[in-house]
Amino acid sequence: MQRTTIGDMGAFANRVLVWVLSSPLRRLAGRSLTAIRLIGRRTGATHVFPVQYAADGDRIVIVAANASDKTWWRNLEDGGTADLLLDGDWIPHHLRVVRGDERSRAYTDYLARFPKLADRLDDCQVVVAART
Q: What is the pTM (predicted TM-score) of this model?
């Protein structure tokens, strides 16, 4: 008998949520969730997963919480192209991890949208996306 792990359940939940975000049911998920589809720079594998975001005009801010436990954002340290699932459509964006003053501004904008997360984001990376 195969055991189901927490990781397996999380991967399944992510697949279901991405499906919901790409369907007419996406409104049930709210306006703060999207999915990222990116290619791993070392493996070449396609990764698709949901993330919470804050829109600020044409800029989208995504915070990778618990960043030391995640690897997806490392694909974007030098910038890169990925697709974001917005309103049911995959749209190409340029994403990059931001540093310094730009990180502070983007992080502040994100917390303005999600103030209850302020005490949960000690270990995070801030990613900014702009439509290509």
A: 0.86
